TrEMBL record:
The lineage of its organism: Eukaryota, Fungi, Dikarya, Ascomycota, Pezizomycotina. It comes from Rasamsonia emersonii (strain ATCC 16479 / CBS 393.64 / IMI 116815). PANTHER family: TRNA-DIHYDROURIDINE(20) SYNTHASE [NAD(P)+]-LIKE. CDD domains: DUS_like_FMN. This is tRNA dihydrouridine synthase (Smm1). It catalyses: a 5,6-dihydrouridine in mRNA + NADP(+) = a uridine in mRNA + NADPH + H(+); a 5,6-dihydrouridine in mRNA + NAD(+) = a uridine in mRNA + NADH + H(+). Residues 25-298 form the DUS-like FMN-binding domain. Coiled coil: none annotated. Keywords: Flavoprotein, FMN, mRNA processing, Oxidoreductase, tRNA processing. Residues 394-417 have a biased composition (Polar residues). GO terms for biological process: mRNA processing. Its cofactor is FMN. It holds the Pfam family Dus.
Amino acid sequence: MASLSSPPRVPIPANGVDYRGKVVLAPMVRSGELPSRLLALKYGADLVWGPETVDRSLIGTTRRINPRNSTIEFTRLPSNGGRSEKATQESVIYRIDPVREKGKLIFQIGTASPELAVQAAKVVAADVAGIDVNSGCPKPFSTSGGMGAALLRDPDRLVSILEALVREVGNPYQIGISVKIRLLEKPEETEKLVTRLCATGITGLTVHCRTTPMRPRERAIRDQLPMIASICRKAGVACVMNGDVTSRDEALALMKEYGVDGAMIATAAESNPSCFRTAAEGGLLPWREVVHDYMEACLQCENRWGNTKYLLNILIPGKNKEFKDAKSAKNYSDACRLLKFDDLLPTAKEVDKIMNLDKKATISSDDDVRTSAVQNAMENNESARAAGGEMSRPKQNSPVASGSGPIRTNSIPSPASNPKPETGVDLSAPTLNPQQDAGIAV
Ligand SMILES: Cc1cc2nc3c(=O)[nH]c(=O)nc-3n(C[C@H](O)[C@H](O)[C@H](O)COP(=O)(O)O)c2cc1C
């Protein structure tokens, strides 16, 4: 029971989570897909934010369970870019591991409308611990639609979005609603905004300690933090700091120094998620170990190959030979051979088949490990490639990609039932998230 002197707290709903005392993975478009989140959790992140997903891209998706790994997938058929022929393969818009992410996943929404925000949030509400509104993305893709940082200049709208989410999603589904903002230019402006946001019923507020025009390379500014933390404390809202936090140990020290409740890490975790390990736990792991763990998670999740490759390029230091090799890999088997992850090779072959990536191999036979010189020659020389034989291999239709796999389709759970079903994982489909396609970094 709270003592008379303890500050008030907005009650944490039954299926929600308190951000206090937590060091968390930041929302990151592209870099915050399921394997990255699982890795962050494995290394000690207390909570993970998923990548911003725009309301309209989630509305109308189908929720299904992947029968092989039990992850939950929200899918839809792509529009096919206006072409007349209909796409046959569904795209996974969002993927959740209901076991390992249980009680730890915050879904971040990109929105400019209370109605659409509520509609989209209801799609995932029974499968997540919280819904966070992105009010900090400075990219034109976001701001031109009135989303992201545009909401900082339209506080009435932001307040109405948060109030609608609290009333129509947070309360019935018993999860927390939160917001992630940037600093405004003048402390008085930030103060006014934070005061209003804290009165909406939200359980948490994250502040990215940069203003909207600031570039990611510019150092975060923290002088407004004590003021923001104090407003949040008085309102009973958890305050999470973000910007230039590089490790769990540093996060804990900064939380103490600035009187904030939690800390969020983005770019440091993107390049080495073992930053969530304390020094006492051994601190940062060498990149090879991290990349091995990452690859294992990607295989378990059947992560989209393009996304896996994108992250490999970030996780492997640029000067390493493996960096060049990994760049040329066309599928999971290739990458595992090139990186000498022999233990993962059998699974990699299976996943390549499931995802229809096996025909894309740049290495001729399943058991033939070529040197990177041969590999590169094959990359650059069509005839050498043809002689490799992989190109002429008959296409194998995966039961999943061809739609005949035993995928179960669930209806969206109702708030009261709060089912939290078994897990599942991604297929080969390209993601439809418009931000990912637009390469948005927020
Ligand atoms: C690749 C990338 C993607 C990002 N995507 C999002 C996002 O989806 N939503 C969001 O609120 N912020 C996003 N951000 C911003 C981060 O969450 C964070 O606020 C910012 O990087 C500052 O933290 P840092 O100094 O630890 O990097 C992204 C940042 C990066 C680097």
